[in-house]
Write a structure and sequence with these properties.
TIM Barrel; 2 domains; alpha/beta; 12 strands; two-stranded antiparallel sheet; 16 helices; 13% strand; 8-stranded parallel sheet
């Protein structure tokens, strides 16, 4: 494939997913696309991705598992894989998240927020530098949507991002839907939050839809982009000297092609600015430095301890982190379980369908407090645990059991999935 040109994405894009590959390939004047790096085999990319790249559509590998903000050692294999994805696709850049995924040897299976502290900033800078050393293209970093905040932030989000990008030279992947979700959940003005971000460092922009659970706004990527997010996108464009590249994210509950095209048209309309303003640097009022904004028994604890306790609470039934809102932690844990249930439903469609709308609650009842072991194995353990399997689900389990003996621990997930699918011809 062609080598990277170094030019950043332009125009309107959509995230490539196998479920909507046909829709994506048929979009006229597609500016760019993005593929989840962890789903990609660099030596053998999906045909739809290869076809788009062959047509000259830039493809951006988007990482979700590096855990750049984690104090656990950065996984060298994951960094190498991300770099290989970029090289194989001739990507103009790659992207990852301002978050952590693993701590204390446990994997949360989800992007978790960092305390905005000097220590967390130092960890991020070191891990970003380690990643950049292996990349031949720029790295863009995406701030995540968070259902809770740590109690003793030393920076505002804008200050933290500005310092991170200044120290690393990285670019900003700005998810407007994340800004909206965080502002709603924190009781903030989203436009004021935007103005505090280093907008002159934007590489490209994400937009997506969400859902309400537990009285909070969740960034789910499973619904249409709401008017509030489109309005915030317009407000962003009006603050920039030129419209940025904007990409629609959709991960599940895929609508008909006409609905996706309507969403793209709405995004295109929102990026037609009514006015032009200067690029906003925005790191807070001039001269403002970091200042403590909270207290609690967890204040001052090493970052590695804080992350380890948090992940253990969310996925292994461990004690709550002190001074972190317990209601928000419970909402986060339930959100992680819903996400795992959705992924397991893809691997176990008959099992999930047999419970209908109750699937998420059935999954949570059997997997709450159990560490994530991958969607295939999560579903396998649920199927073995329930006592009311329907005929289809029972047949599905029997087929899996006949294809491969599985003790729930010993077989690595990628090899297990490959062997099962080969035996079952799926």
């Amino acid at each position: 494939m062609a080598e990277a040109t170094g030019a950043l994405p332009t125009g309107l894009g959509i995230g490539w997913r196998s479920e909507i590959a046909g829709v994506v390939s048929a979009i006229d004047a597609l500016g760019f696309t993005e593929v989840i790096a962890e789903s990609l085999a660099p030596a053998d990319p999906p045909r739809g991705v290869a076809d788009l790249r062959g047509r000259g559509v830039p493809v951006v590998p988007h990482g979700v598992r590096l855990s750049l903000g984690g104090t656990d050692a950065l996984d060298a294999g994951r960094v190498t894989h991300l770099a290989a994805c970029a090289a194989a696709l001739g990507a103009p850049l790659v992207s990852e998240h301002v978050a952590f995924v693993r701590a204390g040897g446990r994997d949360a299976g989800h992007l978790l927020p960092l305390p905005r502290s000097r220590e967390a900033l130092d960890v991020l800078v070191a891990n970003v530098a380690r990643t950049q050393a292996e990349l031949d293209v720029p790295l863009a970093l995406e701030p995540v949507a968070a259902l809770f905040d740590w109690p003793d932030d030393e920076y505002t989000e804008g200050e933290f991002l500005t310092a991170l990008l200044d120290r690393t030279g990285a670019l900003l992947l700005l998810d407007v839907a994340n800004v909206h979700a965080n502002a709603v959940n924190r009781g903030q003005d989203p436009e004021a939050v935007l103005e505090s971000f280093p907008l002159d460092r934007i590489a490209y922009v994400h937009v997506a839809g969400g859902a309400e659970h537990d009285g909070l706004h969740h960034d789910t990527h499973t619904a249409a982009v709401p008017d509030a997010v489109l309005g915030l996108l317009s407000a962003l464009v009006d603050r920039l000297p030129a419209p940025p590249a904007v990409m629609l994210e959709r991960d599940g509950h895929y609508p008909p092609a006409a609905a996706l095209h309507a969403e793209l048209a709405a995004i295109r309309s929102a990026t037609a600015p009514a006015r032009r303003g200067p690029a906003v640097r925005g790191s807070g009022p001039a001269g403002r430095g970091p200042a403590a904004r909270g207290s609690g028994s967890f204040t001052g604890a090493p970052l590695t301890d804080r992350q380890t306790v948090l992940v253990a609470n969310l996925v292994a039934g461990g004690p709550r982190p002190p001074a972190v809102d317990p209601g928000r932690l419970d909402a986060t844990r339930r959100a992680l379980l819903r996400k795992r249930a959705g992924l397991a439903a893809v691997e176990w469609p008959l099992l999930a369908a047999s419970y209908g709308d109750r699937w998420a609650s059935v999954f949570a009842r059997h997997r709450d407090g159990c560490e994530p072991v991958g969607a295939l194995r999560d579903g396998w353990d649920v199927a073995r645990s329930v006592d009311d399997l329907g005929p289809g689900a029972a047949r599905e389990l029997a087929e899996r059991e006949s294809a491969l003996r599985y003790d729930g621990r010993s077989t690595p997930l990628p090899r297990l999935r490959t062997r099962v699918r080969r035996r079952l011809r799926i």
